[in-house]
Write a structure and sequence with these properties.
Elements (H helix, E strand, L loop, with lengths): L15 E2 H6 L4 H4 L4 E2 L5 E4 L6 H8 L6 E3 L1 H8 L13 E6 L9 E6 L5 E4 L3 E4 L1 H8 L5 H11 L9 H9 L7 H10 L7 H12 L6 E7 L4 E8 L4 E5 L2 H5 L1 H16 L3 E5 L5 H14 L5
Parallel strand pairs: 5-6, 11-12
Antiparallel strand pairs: 1-3, 2-3, 4-5, 7-8, 9-10, 10-11
Length: 297
């Protein structure tokens, strides 16, 4: 079979609407060749581009002005954590504002008449605001999953909204699907988290009957000021998560040793945790450490 005829420069190496190609004189037979994929009705893109962000770029070529990426897709584009169980959801989630919900293969469509704040991300893609995305996800996530997402919104190193704004959004969501989940999650959201893992650990500690720890707070030592992942300042107990870089990087290893020595010198008891440690084991270790420091008083 002969090689497909080369597309004009303005259509190469990117997604495009079929209507745009036809308007430029491209024949239907050329648009059916195997070097092009059809991720959505009326859209073509290079066959080697697939999934995730590329799907959003492709869908955007035929996206009406009142459509916006929302829910799971907006969360991914905004860097809001989602549970692993949703990794298999490869649809694009799109909301029509004051219109009919979009339909199509690999499209999860929604419709709303609520005021919808829109942000733009890489590539000029229109997405619901981080706050609106979080409230929308209340209909699809569990309480704990929504807490992880909420902690990201007001977490470190860069928050996406404020706790006060979240409170207002919850109050404005009365009667919507997932409202009860939203209320319960908001009660558990805290500022300062750097990862879903820290959020899960915090929830596990509190549910085990332990005091609520501070998240990524400063500890002033004699020679330096450091930050701890989860800490009980009153009892000088610190929980630190360590990834592979702490073990594989010689500089990081030496830095950690010096840091832990300084913490011990200042009277801190450090629990070093890994991603394989269960919530139950972490809570049990934290309880023993706290009791050794006089908790409960």
């Amino acid at each position: 079979m002969p090689q497909p005829r080369e597309l004009p420069p303005e259509l190469r190496d990117r997604a495009f609407a079929v209507a745009d190609a036809v308007g430029r004189g491209i024949l239907a037979d050329r648009l059916r060749r195997t070097d092009l994929a059809a991720p959505f009705h009326g859209v073509r893109r290079p066959a080697q581009q697939a999934g995730g962000y590329s799907d959003c770029i492709a869908y955007a070529t035929r996206m009406p002005a009142n459509h916006v990426f929302s829910h799971v897709t907006a969360a991914r584009l905004l860097g809001i954590p989602l549970p692993a169980r949703l990794s298999h959801d490869t649809r694009v989630h799109v909301t029509a504002v004051d219109g009919r919900a979009p339909r199509g293969i690999r499209v999860a469509g929604y419709a709303t008449r609520r005021e919808t704040l829109v942000e733009r991300v890489s590539g000029g893609l229109r997405v619901t605001s981080a706050l609106r995305t979080w409230t929308d996800l209340a209909s699809q996530l569990s309480v704990d999953e929504l807490v992880e997402a909420g902690d990201r919104l007001i977490g470190q190193p860069r928050s996406l909204t404020t706790h006060a704004a979240m409170s207002e959004a919850v109050g404005a969501s009365v009667g919507l699907r997932g409202y009860r989940t939203l209320v319960r999650a908001f009660e558990l959201v805290r500022p300062g988290s750097r990862s879903p893992r820290e959020t899960r650990a915090r929830l596990a500690l509190v549910r085990a009957g332990l005091p609520e720890p501070e998240l990524n707070a400063e500890i002033v030592l004699r020679r330096r000021t450091v930050h701890g992942d989860l800490l009980y300042r009153r009892w000088r107990v610190l929980i630190e998560y360590e990834g592979d870089q702490h073990r594989a990087d010689p500089w990081q290893w030496a830095h950690d040793l010096e840091r832990y020595n300084d913490l011990a010198e200042a009277g801190w008891l450090v629990i070093r945790a890994s991603k394989t440690m269960t919530d139950g084991d972490l809570a049990a270790r934290a309880a023993r450490a706290l009791r050794s420091r006089g908790w409960p008083e």
